[in-house]
């Protein structure tokens, strides 16, 4: 019986190809792999067909309806799940554009060979960088095509059969296995950047863009207009989301007409990653930054040091890493930081480094006396830790040692040079423990010491920045910021506490970045590594919680002072092996909230989030699932 079924399936495939020849269409078979042999052998070896071949879809009342594909009975009337999802109902973009979105939902077929870049800009530096951006754009598309096509192969056969190898499965050899013709013969992408030559992202950068397409007689033109390199990059990212590879037909598809005008609501759209409590490799950091670019997040806040470790290798003070890193291999050099900065710039992202001070400064600072610099930090490893710091090991910089400030100045100088960030810098500044300092400065007003240290550190930052004070010097919200003493013209506050603190700061004229623990701390909800539940911030913050949080909702009179927001991932219980699932797709929810802050029905949000999450997976990001696979295959059934 089994051999009869196999023979019948083979006959069906042969008849379908014969039918294509009779109707004047030639099968476009792969070059490196014999598609017929692969198809027939996979049937005989019991390799399952992908879901799109088992189930087919029709768009009914803006809803994709799943039907079983009974021996290709309705093949020409139905669609794959992805094509149906993309063309049924509203446009599936993430983040959703802000100003104008008009898309004709008719899909057109094309191959990647049709794509070409035509760049119009008088600035040679912009031209060079945008060509690299276009290469990234093409590389992502090719990677997604390869990822989707590999799902069709019998992986056991690929491993066992020396004729079929993974390295032979190039994009060009995959071909288009449907036997109809491409709708698009040539697809030029015309990019116009005429107003700004600056390649350094700052909080005044114009990130707006326009994207308009037209199609006529096999020629499809995409026209991108932007005032800056960064706006044009965002436009290309939007265009990429409006292209999808249909693994059922083995064609790329896009929409017949697109008109989008877009600009971000907030200037600062960030993610913070702590690389002290667990070392995170450069490759993992780059993977995170790559995913950020697709969600139009634009600030990577690198909390590079803390009391647990000091992995940054300073050229002036290598002792910090020698005493503070987990190992000599688990460190970041200036070349590493420059490499990450260059990688991020091409993806529209600014790197913001943070050397936390004065608290959270432990063993890395324990070498001062041996070098004749005195105690750079106090209370290092002091017990019981619960009395002298928030979590072990303890350590807090010595505010009365000028050598401590000079070391900080040199660190700031190195990091400013490596990241090319001059308008926004983060000093740290949270969770100072008065019991630590009280042992050394009995009788002094400890809040005054903290205040003066913060001013001194900011002065050293100005010196490090060639005597130019950055426009925004950021500190965490704390007992110090509650006193509203820091000069509001000089300091911005990253608020991780509640809206009462935010309101008080805004009312006094401070600029703020929201990072409230109640919604945007992505490490919460996994219990505690400490006895007694110390440090727990349950419950888990779902992507819906991240998305639904709008701390500015009742603060519109102060909207100009709200720079934006940032989701934070502290890594007490996160290594790089959990990095993708902790960040994604929850960080994408933040991306849309800060880019367009839309007011859409949650059903539409779910549909768009599902497609964006799957796109991240196709791009190599191990994003967390947002609902059962059944819900993904049956859009709208789980609403």
UniProtKB/TrEMBL annotation:
GO CC terms, sorted: plasma membrane
Which one GO biological process term can you cite for this protein? carbohydrate metabolic process
Instruction: Tell me the keywords, alphabetical order.
Output: Glycoprotein, Glycosidase, Hydrolase, Signal
Signal peptide positions are 1-20
What sequence ranges are listed for the domain Glycoside hydrolase family 20 catalytic?
A: 266-597
Q: Give all residue intervals belonging to the Beta-hexosaminidase eukaryotic type N-terminal domain.
A: 93-242
* Alphabetical list of SUPFAM superfamilies matching this protein: (Trans)glycosidases, beta-N-acetylhexosaminidase-like domain
The EC number(s) given in the record are: 3.2.1.52
Gene Ontology MF annotations: beta-N-acetylglucosaminidase activity
Catalytic residues identified in the record: 431
Instruction: Report the superkingdom from the record.
Output: Eukaryota
Q: Pfam families attached here?
A: Glyco_hydro_20, Glycohydro_20b2
The record lists the catalysed reaction(s) as: Hydrolysis of terminal non-reducing N-acetyl-D-hexosamine residues in N-acetyl-beta-D-hexosaminides
Regarding protein family, the annotation reads: Belongs to the glycosyl hydrolase 20 family.
What is the protein name given in its UniProt record?
Answer: beta-N-acetylhexosaminidase
- The protein's organism comes out as Glossina pallidipes (Tsetse fly)
